[in-house]
Amino acid sequence: MLFLGTEKYPVENHYGKFISEHGGSKNAGTSFLTTYYYFDIANEHLHTASDIFSQFFKCPLFTEEAVEREINAVDSEFRKNYQLDSRKLYQVFKSHAANPLSHFSKFQTGNLEYLSKPGIRDALIKFHSEYYSSDIMNLCIYGKESIEDLEKLAIETFEDVENKNVKLEDRSEPHPFPLETLGKLFKIVPSKDIRKLSIKWILPDTKQLYKVKPGNYISQILGHEGPNSLLGYLIREGLVTELSSSFDHVLDACDYFTVSVTLTEEGEENYQKVMRIIFAAVNHLKEQDLKNYIFEEEQTMNKISFENEVKQKAISTTRHLAGRIKKLVDRNISMDQLLYYPYILEDFDEEAIKSHINEMKAHKTIVMFTTKKHHTKTDQIEAVYNTDFSCEDISQEFLDELDKITFEDIESKEEVMHKYKFDYPPKNEFIPYNTEIMKADTLQEFDKLDTSTFKNCTLWFKMDDKFDQPKVNVKAILRTNDLDHRINVKSKVFKNLWSSLARENLREFAYCASLAQIHYSLSTNVEGVTFSFHGFNDGIQNFIKEVMKLSSTRDQSFDQ
Fold first, then answer.
1. Which residues of the chain have pLDDT under 50?
2. Which of 360, 390, 414 corresponds to the end of one domain?
3. Which domain does 509 fall in, by range?
């Protein structure tokens, strides 16, 4: 609405037209506690654009016609996303798993039904007049001018934004997830034919533990996809194909940690077994001493990532920094940490991390089980996205079992010993401790190197003369006639099957490399197989050797 005219610039599309005519872009967005407005533009027009932009926070018009059109625009966006299962599942979680009295439970995006209410324009004007106040706003301006000139621009265009001394409501109360909302199983019918199981633990708020980040440590283990991983165990059991873990804050009230898996048909039929295995992994962590090297590896990669960060677009930088300022103010962090804040990881506080792991109890969970097979077993409909679902209490007996279950219990019950064991990930051999930059002083051309010691091989090399990064790009083409899929269908099927099996064979190994920002891709065409590698100089040589070796090795994954 603020883009659609102000007292100083009343023409409805003046802002958008000015931005687009001068090589810029614009956008806005709203999260639970923050609204962002941002733009970029050719530097010589920054002053005028800033003046137009600043009027949003002083004197917007909110014309009746513009309000009606914007409601329709919001509804159009809602309709576009209506069939997305991610939206459907999240809305069930918000509106039916959470406390209905909490702010978290509210519908977040809006549609025609929710917004077409009498007095909506007056409500918009009232909200703006009460909350668009300089004391709860943060501003970031990015330009080629000096700091002094940019500060002068900020003062000239924004100093008369009114300070209304706003006292913000504490939105952490009522609590989004009191105990009576937990220990529930939601069975949800998706739009697409997906099979998904998500376990969410409701945990204490950790925003002040930004130097420790307990959720990151836990995710590094439970979400790991390399050797000894929970994913590897579940795949070998034939129960899942994918696993992810995430950590989120909720309105400064609490956190929730999620483990989500994509189920196979067998996993769908045995979802409780999947839950037992996931809880066995959590219980294993509760019994083990924490490993400092996991923290140190992430700490090292954070430092390296910051020191070698590629310059981002100005529009992204300003948006992130403006939002980050509030976090630093709320947490009493010095502004000299503004750029480094997302990378801060200083204290291996074993007690704090262990305390968080110990909070991961079965009765503090919300389980969301999504499959088309629930379509005859649901008894409720979520109102916004019309999602069929049911909710039931998880039995106390099963909750107690989950809190005690071990891998030994699972294996003894099945009367089989598993060769693959869940444990801490091994130390990552690909962490690039040497990040010295090798760069040519003059412009370079590709040189053909001497490969007389190799048969049927050509090798080209070019020293970096531009990017100033301690990284390397390698492309290897293995030429063969075996993949000429134009010959017959069988050849094409073989090509696709081999590619899939090769990637699966490399999955755990390549995941460890990816944590060190070393990546590869594999593709096939009529010429043969192409491998592409990108990452830090330190560590990538061994990775390339192992990829080439593993991709030509037949093991159990190929037999399966």
1. none
2. 414
3. 447-559
